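User: Can you help me understand a structure? I only have the sequence.
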Amino acid sequence: MTRLLLGTAGIALMTVGLSLLVTGGQFRDVALWLAGAVVLHDLLIAPLVLVIGLLPAFLPARGLLRGALVTGGCLTVIALPVLLAPGTPRNLSVLPLDYPRNWLLSLAAVAAVTGAVLTGRWLRARWARRARAGGRR
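Assistant: Let's start by predicting it. Here is the structure, written out as tokens:
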């Protein structure tokens, strides 16, 4: 019953949205934007992600490095509208922070956490090797 109600509500909301889109006169703009998003994704973003994902393929900590790359990529995608905004806004309260600096600090934090985890794994493996070698004597 819940699925039926949610499905009906979803279809009703999609119908309202579609009618507003068609009657608002911006159907062509939205269709062009959606087509551009598909082309941008298929021709640029997906191949770039695949190539970057292959870079750490032969490293021992490839999962951790791929996670750091995905996190950095998500931070960049979220920050892109502000990073690409032209000039200073007329209303200074709209973008009051130093977004490029904060984006770089976020990427540095991801790199620092990744480095700390890699160092911790390396130290743990080193201590385990020493403990095995010490037990054999």
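Now, to help you interpret it: The chain has a mean pLDDT of 87. Helices lie at 2-23, 27-54, 62-83, 99-136. Let me know which part you'd like to focus on.
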